[in-house]
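Troubleshooting entry. The earlier prediction with glycylglycylglycine gave an output that would not parse, so I re-checked the input for stray whitespace and re-submitted. Clean input:
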Amino acid sequence: MTHEITVIPGDGIGQEVTPAAVEVLEALEIDFEFHEAEAGDHVAEETGEALPEETYDLAASTDATLFGAAGETAADVILPLREAVDSFVNVRPAKAYPGVDALRPETDLVFLRENTEGVYSGHEDRLSDDLSTLTRVVTTSASERLAEFACDFVEDGEYDGFHIAHKANVMRETDGRFRDAVLEVADDRGVQTEEVLMDAFATHVCLDPTQFDVVACPNLAGDVLSDLAAGLVGGLGMLPSANVGPDRGLFEPVHGSAPDIAGEGVANPAATIISAAMLLEYLGHDEEGQAVRDAVEGVLEDGPRTPDLGGDASTEDVTAAILERLN
Ligand code: GGG
């Protein structure tokens, strides 16, 4: 069986780390057909449109998409792409790997970020020269969908339960709805939950990340708190993610386009290659996914490192070392 994969490098270092992950997938004995597609700032500059229809259609019809990074046009690229694969949750593991100089080496947690609504629903208005507004959308149905996924995730991974990070003491209606819906599903499913206010979570996770395993969050909170956790495990180059939908998925590093280093060939490919491992697992190739994870972990432990991890290796050096361990 051939897996059809859309590959969208996007902007900045996405152009460097995405080919690295494709090289790793190509090294496996799995039948892939890759469809390279364009999106991002550079496409908007040329055509006036950051996400061409054919790119959207490919993501919406292939088995999985590997995405690199979004820049200034993130709202026009990554949000519709997540919609194209009907992904209602963004799974963002934050794990400190042996050998990586992490602020909190004991960190090992997973964010389950609601992926369709909240303040990322796109309802922003400029009402006057002085006033702009944003409508925050929270539905019971999307919150329940996330909660069902969280319960399955906890049961499959044999976790004790999950935390719900929210700010329902202030956003009583929207985060209140999110919290109540998630609590009700977890209660019905007999899955333990613990609530934590998202601002307090930010402090607690820095002080002692071992308090947390699985954290379900509204959209913006999941985006921000997972970036914060990246700071605990060696930086944004370390966090992969899976945007999971019922029939297809979109896999991307958590980091953006990193314009400060784009074009230098020194971006850390680890997050994108681990995202490719998540893609493999999503498609049912658990063994190959684990082999890719083992190869990345081996290189992180005692192989060449990119400058973000204190080394002077290039993206290509690190990718070559990962491929060598894989073969
Ligand atoms: N590869 C992820 C990426 O491009 N991140 C940049 C960004 O702005 N992301 C917003 C989001 O993840 O919702």
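This one parsed fine. The CA atoms of residues 183 and 193 lie 7 Å apart.
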